[in-house]
Design brief:
The longest helix has about 55 residues. Helix 4 packs across helix 5. By secondary structure, this protein is mainly alpha-helical. It has five helices and three strands, in the order H-E-H-H-H-E-E-H. It has one domain: Protein Binding, DinI Protein, Chain A (2-Layer Sandwich).
Length: about 170
């Protein structure tokens, strides 16, 4: 009877240990940022955002040149103008500066929105691919390796890239 209890206890320990070991192997990792940057759609999205940024930058540069030219003109003509006229001109220049600042702020917000709108489907595709591959391979958890200090689990990068055909 004593041997039977010892045998049952040993069997329970072995089953528990093997369950624990199998649970350990159900964790994988992937660097999601690296995956997204490797996706062809990401390069297209980045090019579109950069193009929009260059368009806004050109408009801002043109406005700055216009503002600079107006300032030079008003400064050159300041002696010949009345105090009241100079005051109106300075108010006009301040209005132009404020309009330019508002345009820059709107352009920045528009670029951020455009980038978000372009990246959202790419991130969703990456998440779907990670989940599909993880489920196919029996993983219960997938961690982003960009935030890990140590990662001994399976790296899903190659498998997910193969799934996405990149």
């Amino acid at each position: 009877m004593k041997h039977l209890k010892s045998l049952l206890f040993a069997a329970a320990l072995i089953i528990g240990a093997s369950s624990f070991m199998s649970a350990q192997s159900k964790v994988a990792h992937i660097n999601k940022e690296e995956l997204v940057k490797a996706m062809p759609a990401y390069a297209v999205a980045q090019a579109e955002v950069e193009k929009l940024g260059k368009t806004y930058q050109a408009q801002i540069q043109d406005s700055l040149k216009e503002l600079d030219a107006k300032l030079k003109q008003y400064n050159a003509e300041a002696e010949a103008q009345t105090q009241e006229e100079n005051q109106k001109r300075m108010e006009e220049v301040e209005g132009m500066k404020q309009s330019l600042a508002q345009f820059q702020q709107n352009a920045q917000q528009d670029m951020q929105k455009k980038e978000f709108d372009l990246l959202k489907p790419i991130l969703e595709d990456a998440n779907d691919a990670i989940q599909t591959v993880a489920r196919e391979q029996g993983f219960q958890y997938v961690l982003d390796s960009a935030m890990l200090i140590m990662a001994d689990g399976k790296d899903l990068m190659a498998d997910v890239k193969a799934h996405l055909k990149i």
